[in-house]
Design goal:
about 270 residues, 60s Ribosomal Protein L30, Chain: A, seven-stranded parallel β-sheet, tRNA_m1G_MTases_N, rRNA methyltransferase, SpoU_MeTrfase
């Protein structure tokens, strides 16, 4: 259902309004039950994972590239406009082909997720969407069963997180913990050994952690600036470090996650 848009104030495209306003979007999208998939690859991965579109949004030149997909969703609006009109609506030049507003899925059941997982990642208060997306991409590539995010952590289904993850956020089950660090006890009750990545005196090395081969392992990663909170470290079973060469304090949280996921991958 192709609909041509020639007015940036058209209420039918309100899902796409002001995509660069992070504060607006992080309230609007969960409240209205949507998320935005950006680029042809991400849209295809979202649809392949079973997510349902609310609408599509693109310039006319990209219609042929999505023709095979649009044929299966001929009842869904496809909003088409000039590059100038679309830029006024979303706030930037849309050069990645197309976007889709998708119905946000129901949250995963935490108990079921923990019961069916052996190795999970827990992200404490990570607010940078690029890092969130990168962690999910590493989790998908390196066999992490699920990702849990704390209440103050950024939204994994925010547009930038999805794009940086290359759509792999749709492959890895995830859930938001209702409380933190109280949620650590939930992990212990589910049989997980909790391992906090932190540079403290009694830390194991990541190789020593891998050698333990814990049956159920939760790797806890902290915020970009301050790392994990003291309350979190006090409640976890283990502290774990990635040894650094002289003169380097630590890795970015996204890089650290990739190292930790690879080192503890039971397939190796």
């Amino acid at each position: 259902m192709i609909i041509h848009i020639d007015d940036a104030a058209d209420p039918r495209v309100s899902d796409y309004l002001s995509l660069t306003d992070v504060q607006l979007r992080k309230v609007k999208e969960p409240a209205e039950g949507l998320f935005i998939a950006e680029s042809l690859k991400v849209i295809r991965r979202a649809l392949a994972s079973g997510h349902q579109p609310r609408s599509f949004f693109m310039t006319e030149r990209w219609l042929p590239d999505l023709a095979s997909i649009l044929a299966d969703y001929d009842h869904i609006p496809v909003y088409v406009g000039t590059a100038e009109i679309l830029e006024k609506i979303i706030g930037f030049n849309l050069h990645r082909g197309a976007m889709a507003a998708m119905h946000r899925p129901e949250p995963a059941d935490l108990s079921e997720l923990l019961a069916n997982s052996r190795r999970i990642a827990v992200l404490e208060d990570i607010v940078d969407h690029t890092n969130i997306g990168a962690v999910f991409r590493s989790a998908a590539a390196l066999g992490v069963d699920a990702v849990l995010v704390t209440p103050r952590c950024a939204d994994p289904l925010y547009r930038r997180s999805i794009r940086v993850s290359m759509g792999t956020v749709f492959q890895v089950p995830w859930a938001r913990l209702p409380q933190w660090p109280e949620g650590i006890q939930v992990l212990h009750d589910a049989g997980f050994t909790t391992a906090a990545l932190a540079l403290v005196e009694d830390s194991l090395t990541i190789k020593e952690l891998a050698a333990r081969n814990d049956q159920k392992l939760a790797l806890i990663l902290g915020t970009e600036g301050d790392g994990l909170s003291a309350r979190t470290l006090a409640q976890t079973d283990l502290a774990v470090m990635i040894p650094m060469a002289d003169g380097v304090d630590s890795l970015n949280v996204a890089a650290a996650s990739a190292v930790a996921f690879f080192a503890t991958d039971p397939r190796h």
